[in-house]
Design a protein that fits this description.
Elements (H helix, E strand, L loop, with lengths): L4 E5 L3 H13 L4 E6 L10 E4 L1 H10 L1 H10 L1 E9 L2 E14 H15 L2 E4 L12 E4 L6 H5 L5 E5 L3 E7 L6 E8 L2 E11 L2 E8 L1 H6 L2 H7 L7 H10 L1 H4 L4 E2 L9 E5 L3 E2 L2 E3 L14 H18 L3 H31 L9 H9 L7 H7 L1 H12 L11 H6 L3 E3 L2 E3 L14 E6 L7 H10 L4 E6 L3 H17 L3 E6 L4 H9 L5 E4 L5 H13 L1
Parallel strand pairs: 1-2, 1-7, 2-6, 4-10, 7-16, 19-20, 20-21, 21-22
Antiparallel strand pairs: 3-5, 4-5, 8-14, 9-12, 9-13, 10-11, 11-12, 15-16, 17-18
Helix pairs in contact: 1-4, 1-10, 2-3, 2-10, 3-4, 10-11, 12-14, 13-14, 16-17
Length: 526
């Protein structure tokens, strides 16, 4: 396809990366990036790059990735509750200052022959170009000016703010701090030898009790909420090790999830946050935007027309984005309800964190971080950390006994006749979310149950929702909780048990009889 002129609206990572890739692919094309701010204007602190993202960027443009890696900072990951700390060695976790990332991508774009026009605010309708790429962020004027994109925005209930500090943490850390007003949770990580990002979140009730509704209202758009920063600096004093918190237009926000019915109209295509967002706890907007750029470049390479290319781009890329948004929503809700899990042993809390969205299963966690994952499993089972790891951990987990005020059970597979017990109440879970109004009503109703038995559709997403609803009942009531799970989701059952999301599971009628037999065989041997 012959492209003479390509215009990119927005000089963030996604726009710059798309411009470079397309200029390399179409060297004779005039590719221009229009950015309304100056080259060094940016908000935020560090940007994280996971190993899979690094692989994707390397395959698309090794030179850019090598420049980024050379300037990036490697770190590990940890979780701390009180004095208890769990660490995971992840040598492939990288972070880089957002300002540095932008400088690298600006340089790489110019090296390819892209024109960078800073301090210029343009709109798609005024641009005479074969292709207009709108990478103009979550507040996209392009998306907002044309209803044909069919934009839908939803807002989370939790509140968060971004800030930083002037030293490198020894690792990325997830750490809660409970004050007189409630619990705050920090997601923090180093991104250079003398800087770390601090993202801190809390629930609305805690936010109001601390007076941050007032301080937020009194903070102008160009400033930072210094009242909140001083408070949080004190709350996380141990983690900060005597250092202060740094603001950069830092104020409390609620996460906004963007979805669009379509990503292109005529020759204008949305990219990155302009088209979609996913909660920061599962992956950065930078990752999504740069991977969008890779997909758009491939679609243009393999298509005969702009229309075909944009249709192919969306058809190819949307399933991955939809999936990421789905698991990101689960992660968002897990973090919003984090304070309820503070009584869980930190080893099991790490398992709960890693398996919270269904993206990582217990088996995968055991393979990638065997010592940490096995510590969580043995904590769940009440056995010594040095216990021999069985060949089939999933079956071993299901075979562990449990004591509950409702009774003692030799294994975590519910007895077949428990469903018909007069004290058992069967609840059908058909919600899309464990936190919608229907789920709220179900949890409230289960408060009076002796045994709350949850059934529903056999697909995995429904199973994960049932486990999340079950966790709410476990944490908020005295009921014995049972979740029906098909054999295809036994790994999710094991993760749910170790994470404390349910007391028992029930293999459904279509479960593999061999799997049922294996659980009973293991149960009889322990």
């Amino acid at each position: 396809m012959n492209l003479a002129k390509i215009a990119v609206l927005g000089g963030g990572p996604g726009g710059l990366y798309a411009a470079r890739l397309l200029k390399l692919r179409h060297p004779d094309a005039d590719v221009t990036v229009y950015e309304q701010s100056s080259p060094d204007t940016t908000f935020g602190f560090g940007v994280g790059l996971a190993s899979r993202t690094q692989r994707n960027l390397r395959d698309a443009d090794a030179a850019s990735l090598e420049a980024i890696v050379a300037a990036a900072y490697s770190h590990e990951m940890s979780m701390q509750v009180g004095e208890d700390v769990v660490r995971i060695a992840h040598g492939d976790l990288l972070a880089i200052a957002r300002t540095q990332l932008l400088a690298i991508l600006q340089d790489q774009a110019q090296r390819a022959g892209v024109t960078l026009a800073f301090g210029e605010r343009r709109v798609a309708a005024d641009l005479n170009a074969d292709l207009v790429i709108a990478a103009d962020g979550i507040n996209s004027a392009t998306r907002g000016s044309d209803p044909r994109f069919g934009a839908h925005l939803t807002t989370g209930t939790g509140l968060y703010l971004w800030c930083g500090t002037d030293f490198a943490l020894p690792s990325a850390i997830f750490v809660p701090s409970t004050t007189e007003h409630g619990t705050f949770v920090a997601h923090a990580y180093p991104y250079s030898t003398d800087r770390s990002t601090f993202l801190i979140e809390t629930d609305e009730a805690t936010w109001r009790r601390a007076g941050f509704d007032v301080s937020t209202a009194e903070t102008d758009q160009a400033g930072s909420d210094m009242t909140s920063l001083r408070y949080l600096q004190s709350a996380f004093a141990d983690t900060l090790a005597g250092h202060g918190l740094i603001g950069n237009r830092t104020r409390w926000m609620r996460f906004r999830t963007v979805r669009c019915d379509r990503w292109s109209v005529d020759n204008v295509v949305l990219l990155g946050d302009a088209a979609h967002t996913a909660h920061y706890s599962i992956g950065s907007g930078t990752k999504l935007a740069m991977e969008d750029a890779i997909a758009l470049d491939a679609a243009l390479r393999d298509s005969d027309s702009i229309a075909d290319a944009l249709a192919s781009y969306e058809q190819t890329r949307r399933p991955a984005v939809d999936h990421l948004q789905q698991i990101a929503r689960r992660s968002e809700l897990w973090w919003e309800s984090f304070p309820q899990r503070m009584d869980l042993a930190v080893d099991r809390l790490m398992v709960s964190y890693m398996t919270r969205s269904g993206k990582v299963g217990l088996d995968r966690f055991l393979d990638s971080a065997p010592e940490v994952a096995w510590a969580g499993v043995t904590s769940y089972a009440g056995v010594a950390d040095d216990a021999a790891r069985p060949d089939d951990v999933t079956q071993w987990v299901l075979a562990q006994p449990v004591e509950h005020p409702r009774g003692s059970y030799p294994a975590r597979q519910a007895p077949a006749d428990l469903r018909d017990d007069p004290e058992t109440v069967v609840h059908h879970v058909d919600s899309d979310s464990a936190w919608d109004a229907a789920a709220d009503a179900l949890v409230a109703a289960a408060g009076t149950d002796a045994v709350a038995w949850l059934d529903g559709a056999p697909d995995r997403e429904s199973v994960l929702t049932r486990l999340d609803v079950a966790e709410r009942i476990v944490l908020g009531t005295d009921a014995l909780v049972v979740v029906e799970i098909p054999s295809s989701c036994l790994a999710d059952a094991a993760a749910g048990l170790v994470s404390g999301r349910t007391h028992l599971v029930a293999l459904t009628a279509d479960a593999d009889t061999e799997a049922e037999g294996a659980v009973r065989a293991v149960a009889s041997s322990v």
